[in-house]
Amino acid sequence: MREHDFRKYLKKHPSPHLPELASHAHCVVIPSYNETAYLPEVLDSLQNAHDGENTAVIVVVNHPAGADEGSSLELLAYLEKVSLPRVYPLYLPDLKGGVGEARKRGMDCFAASRTFQQLKESIIFSLDADSPVSKNYFREVFGAFSAAPDAPGVLIPVRHRQGKTREQERAIREYERYMFRYAEKLRQAGSPYGFVSIGSGFAVRTANYIMAGGMKVKKAGEDFYFLQELVKQSPLCQLTEPLVYPSPRVSERVPFGTGQAVKSLLPGGMMEDIPDKAFDCLAQLLDAAASPDGFLLTESKIIPGDTTHFLEKENFFSVWRSILQNTPPTAEARLKAFHRWFDGLKTLRFLHAVQNSLTSKG
Fold first, then answer.
1. What structural domains does the chain harbor?
2. Quick one: which of 16, 73, 120, 298 is 20 to 30 A from 152 by CA?
3. What are the φ and ψ backbone dihedral angles of 12, each rounded to 5 degrees?
4. What angle do CA 254, 260, 264 make, to 5 degrees?
5. Is the pLDDT reported for residue 300 higher than 80?
6. With bands split at pLDDT 50, 70 and 90, how would you rate the model's confidence at 293?
């Protein structure tokens, strides 16, 4: 990234100025709305984690436009009263873009405190206000970045805490099972998008954060959309042991995600898994795209039968010809260009299209 691009990003995305951030090398960003019951435990866990002494914590205190500001003012008063070291409240009332905007504003605020020379080594941690961390949280993530100097980000495994009731516990483990299975099936099929996207489960180099266009402003799923842009730069580093422990609580504040999933599963429901056959079709397509022969993916014999209609609808065959014409004549370059187009969202839509096709055939 050029310094010009850094300055251009800051100009396009102006943010509040917190001069105290300049003295810290890294930052944790926590969006917080009506979180007085949860946030103290999270802040305590960060204070007690090893190797976090040079990492600031920005708590973005906000309430949605039109919502009662009482809980946000209560939280702000708590933060000003406890005066925890390295913790900086950022009060941004009436945000319209949901948790995505709150997360973005905090991350942009830290990015604006960096010099261009600091961007590569400065790390932004994404966390939630109901998600305490392990004592090894910073140590493990910093170690992963050091071991993988070209990785733009690190995926941090999470495990939700035990449910307060037997049914809530069953619901959250069912949701985790579904997420982990989906990610594993994608990895087995050869997709670079085979990971669990969760707002409290990743960290990113500040330079790569800016190169990805910053956090996405969405009321839910901002982590999914941001991480799929990040992985287009280079593979992410994935840790294996849980380091973050989110709450399994029911929530209706966002249109989808963990809280809504737990609510839907509490009556005893189960997540509907995408069938293995759909992932088999995905693997066939990805194998064809990765072929060193460089053939056009327009021959019906190499396209899984259940996917042709979807690919035609997405204008894939024209896109593939363009990829062949405009990328270096190597399998690696061709495959990277393919995956930039066939991203995590298209992958999910592809799998659902195959699933619907299989269902209609009985």
1. 3-265 (3.90.550.10), 276-360 (no CATH)
2. 16
3. -75, -30
4. 155
5. no
6. low
